[in-house]
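quick one before i forget lol
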Amino acid sequence: MSEQPLIHARGLIKRFGDFTAVDGIDLEVAPGEAFGFLGPNGAGKSSTMRMISCVSMPTSGELRILGMDPVREGSRIRARLGVCPQLDNLDPDLSVRENLTTYARYFGLSKAESRRRAAELLEFAQLQEKADSQVEPLSGGMKRRLTIARAMVNDPDLVLLDEPTTGLDPQARHLLWERLFRLKQRGTTLVLTTHYMDEAEQLCDRLVVMDGGRIVAEGSPRSLITTYSTPEVVELRFADEVDYAGKLEGIGRVDPLPDRILLYADDGDAAVAEVHRRGLAPSSVLVRRSSLEDVFLQLTGRTLVD
């Protein structure tokens, strides 16, 4: 990297008693990059984010945030971070505008500068008409946009977003993506965790997939799809409960699910033709491009983790 990375980790470990939540990971995040963490529950994403945000100290390994040591310089680092937690923690006793101006004062901004920043961020979040409203009546999407706006009030060098669109409807999610994309265009460095594969594909320049506290894959969304999946996936459904997986061997990688069979192939139409040539008659056939979700499930499995 031509510039010093904003996040640098080598052999980073976090233990809670006998449990190792983060098991020796290496990563770097460059200025202006949108970087993502993917992984099932318990993979170590949140523990890593808490170390990056300087609210949890590493057990061992090397970690530098903005070129500083979080153990010795945590307060200096936190002053230059913007944090959007998974759950909104807005102040319900304050108006929308006051949630921004009051938070700005924590960073030592003057009253005039706090008001200026609030006005700018209300426009960014498309909340100008709600500036004097209380927080409680806001929709989930509005609250999320306000939380992200609040994270920007100190003009941070690095913005951390933990599951930024969880629980939002599709319209609110897409509006929030557009707001985050605008931040990315401005050169803001974003680090996010998400369970939405399409969100990761939309927002992330680069990401890591974590499982069991370790990084199991790293790269751009497109490079990960190219490396760990096939160009196309055929989804087959059959009307009866016969085990058809064995009859599909040799066409491509077969992944039987309770309700359908996924057939990974270089050419989806050619794979479908071969299915029919073998005398099989699926009740429905869908050919689609391979996605980051296919990569995620290939790397971390389909077992539900509580």
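fyi Residues 170-185 form the longest helix (16 residues).
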